[in-house]
Amino acid sequence: MSDTESDKTSSVTATPHRYDTTRAREIEERWQEHWERHGTYLTPNPGEGELAGDPAEAARPKKFIMDMFPYPSGAGLHVGHPLGFIATDAYSRFLRMTGHNVLHSMGFDAFGLPAEQYAVQTGTHPRVTTEANIQTYRAQLRRLGMGYDPRRSFATIDPEYYRWTQWIFLQIFNSWYDHEAGRARPVAELVEQFASGARPTPDGRPWAELTEAERADVLGEYRLAYASDAPVNWCPGLGTVLANEEVTADGRSERGNFPVFRSRLRQWNMRITAYADRLLSDLDTVEWPEAIRTAQRNWIGRSEGARARFLVGEEGDGGFVDVFTTRQDTLFGATYMVLAPEHHVVDAIVPQSWPAGTREAWTGGHATPAEAVAAYRKQASTKSDVERQAEAKEKTGVFTGAFATNPVNGERIPVFVADYVLMGYGTGAIMAVPAHDARDFAFARAFELPMRCVVAPPAGGGRGTDPATWDDAFVGGGEARIVNSTSDALSIDGLTVDEAKARVTAWLTERGLGEGTVNYRLRDWLFSRQRYWGEPFPIVYDEDGIAHALPESMLPLELPEVADYSPRTFDPEDADTQPETPLSRNEDWVDVTLDLGDGRGERRFRRETNTMPNWAGSCWYHLRYIDPRNDEKLVDPELERHWMGPREGADTGGVDLYVGGSEHAVLHLLYARFWHKVLFDLGHVSSAEPYHRLVNQGMIQAYVYRDARGFPVPAAEVVERDGAYVHEGQRVSRELGKIGKSLKNVVSPDDVIGEYGTDTLRLYEMAMGPLEVSRPWETRAVVGQYRLLQRLWRNVVDEATGEVVVADVEPDEATLRAMHKAIHGVTQDMNTLRFNTAIAKITELNNHATRLPRGQVPRVVAETLVLLVSPLAPHIGEELWRRLGHTDSVTRQDFPVADPAYAVDETVTCVVQIRGKIRARLTVPTGIDEDELRERALAEPAVTAALGGAEIRKVIVRAPKLVNIVPV
Ligand code: ANZ
């Protein structure tokens, strides 16, 4: 029988009042019940509203603490999920005990693909499964002892919630970005500008003369939510289009790993690119992990460069192509041009036949340029942008038969189409400078195109100035010098790269041949999905196909019942398929007669049948926690200012702490910032950023055991025998991996709670290591925290009689020091989310108390221990607090405050140096005087050995931390 088992059964013998599993569970269930009944964790809003409460409590300094809310999957929570939840809960409890009014709740991100896929397999409506899963999650979170305000919980599938998701969509639809003012404004103001003539229409006709459809098209070019025909990521295997953020580096769907194709489809987009600059610059105002900020910076990808205009075709026939380059300094080195295969100018420039001297390799084996281009386009359309851009990929392309003229020197260079140039970036056209760009270099080698060195490699750097002898391109930095760059029109030889960039930009600008520009890698956010289980768009189309917003009074637009809610999926490899929206299967819902309140009475419309992506609901949920029941406003502006408003000066406001996984770096975290900024511009919120401080929790991993074939075997059935791992008599291998069903290593929190109780589980998860670091789950190690709680219990309660055994005496000096040191350290650790070291310090103080004679633990020490542990282990905290004679919940007691006179370390480490080199470290009392310190340093064996009898010239003493000995 193991120790653990004897611990658990001993209660039936001589120690009926022991803290064992049965007792832990009894205590925990009782307090969970009590907290719920007494509304212990209700957070009062300031003011008079529905969620107002005790005004004194509402007046305390506020803290808004949030987790990334979970998607309620059918499998329930495993022990990895609650890591972040326990951390924010412990921190929230600590903040309550240090005088804060804490807003902390938990909602559910409940639209999404898995429920739909499950529905397809089982025939159950996604709402039914999702709601059942939410119930499971709620029960599990309750068992974890979470201090949430239940009134503030919601799910994104609740019509009362998605009504506001739809409302925000309409706000975005009805806005445009005024680049001069640097903010979003209502479309109505744009219409006024067109109507008054303050802003000319694209073709110069008065606004009043434009047809309704023409006006809709003009406004569509401005709206922040707009429908457009553009090449999108089409995933036949999932039956839906996807955002760039949902496609992996090798061009497959992040979910399901299906191929993704470029296909031209009419889809809704969000003009997130209008916010690129602000999304970038405001990253400097938030306290986020550097890795996430870098990921967002890279994703936004700001590039400064220039646009340069090349004439195309024969001189005088008027065609031109603008290229985008970040290396305008290399303009003299351009030896060919490349257009994206989709570039609209391609068809216009392709000649009837191949020009004289065209190389065989450039034609792709086709008889005419038109045929070559058509065949190449078809081939390119099956590849994703990411695939097309891969450095290592073999370069492909064909000659268009046309030539372009370099503006700086009049040189005629051949024009190619090649898929390494993307239509969606810059201008979709580049000047190729093979000597100084890696991809151009590879292409030029493959197609035998000339190269010209225009940036001098450093002398002695192992390469000369003839690129024909090089193995790769020479990129060259800001200080490198320009060569071979003189013509009748311009000379930049001898300038540095940076000087040359400025010079060329000025030259292009003066001649109207280009200008300096900034480009962003960020693309607009593809916002429609061909799914059932998502928010319907509050958009209808009239008989002319013009999109109209539903009036607010028609929200929420609820999801209709359909005969079949599964997405229509196709052969994953078949790029020539087209999505079909499940909502289109309900004709009664799609065809409607409505009065939109625009003075035109009832008219016939067709509803939009796409749904929103599952990121929509999580873009604004922080706001709903603040004011969950408001049915007149998204959020009361006063309450938003209170909980999220800027603190002072340049602060951009936001939630005080947001904890979640780093996998959302460029998805949720970018989208939510964008929506929040639109709401900020329109005056609905006072904070410009949603999440002020972000912490990424690590992942809990677990051992995966594999049999000889490499298949995972159930981890729970593996035994250790003589240092080997054995499953059903066979040796298996062991490695660390993600926790999950497919790896057969799921550990359920319910099982751990059943065995040791919630408080032990919470302590264990927090003690495993720093919050940000991934760590392996070790079921065997959980018992360590169980023992801590047992010892704590024994320090307060007599296990035989159940009586409280603390002594009403003053602690001795050593105990006082141990206590204040623990208070000091734990306070610091809790403030900085160092829960693991906080637990170590609590353990130390508890051990000190254990060493005192039985029944002699001073009351103040026992109470301190209980207060220190209760944010982490709230049930035992509450129970012992009650047993110690208090009638109030421990939840809002004052956290102990350290007395600095006792809290500081009594000893410090003193470094002893000989000629500046460290030779020894001494532990000395803080108050040691100079003479004594000198003596002790000189007597230290390591020091005498190092001196080797040498005569001493000088001893410098800086008590208590340094002694420096200088021999002659
Ligand atoms: C000439 C040149 C010379 C370039 C040189 C680079 C080095 P970032 O920094 O990512 O913005 N480029 C421009 N548009 C492109 C497109 N649609 N598809 C693929 N490549 C494109 O990169 C900007 C550079 O990427 C541009 O500068 C252009 O190549 C290429 F020695 O122009 B460069």
What is the CATH top level name of the largest domain?
Answer: Alpha Beta
Q: Which topology of the largest domain does CATH recognise?
A: Isoleucyl-tRNA Synthetase, domain 2
Q: Which homologous superfamily in CATH is the superfamily of the largest domain?
A: Valyl/Leucyl/Isoleucyl-tRNA synthetase, editing domain
**Structural domain tally:** 6
Write the layout of secondary structure elements.
Blueprint: H1 3-9, H2 21-38, H3 55-58, E1 62-67, H4 82-97, E2 101-103, H5 113-122, H6 126-143, H7 159-173, E3 175-178, E4 183-186, H8 187-196, H9 212-220, E5 225-235, E6 240-242, E7 261-270, H10 276-281, H11 290-300, E8 302-312, E9 320-325, E10 336-339, H12 346-349, H13 369-380, H14 385-389, E11 398-405, E12 412-417, E13 429-432, H15 438-447, H16 497-510, E14 514-520, E15 525-526, E16 539-541, E17 547-549, H17 587-590, E18 591-595, E19 602-607, H18 621-626, H19 637-644, E20 657-660, H20 668-681, E21 694-696, E22 700-706, E23 712-713, E24 719-721, E25 724-727, E26 730-738, H21 749-756, H22 758-767, E27 775-776, H23 783-796, H24 813-831, H25 835-851, H26 859-869, H27 874-883, H28 900-903, E28 907-914, E29 917-925, H29 930-939, H30 941-947, E30 952-958, E31 962-967
Parallel strand pairs: 1-2, 1-20, 10-12, 20-21, 22-27, 28-31
Antiparallel strand pairs: 3-4, 5-6, 5-7, 7-15, 8-9, 8-11, 8-14, 10-13, 11-12, 16-17, 16-19, 18-19, 22-23, 22-26, 24-25, 25-26, 28-29, 30-31
Helix pairs in contact: 2-27, 5-6, 21-22, 22-23, 23-25, 24-25, 24-26, 25-26, 26-27
Bound molecules: ligand ANZ.
The site of ligand ANZ has 18 residues, from strand 9 and strand 13.
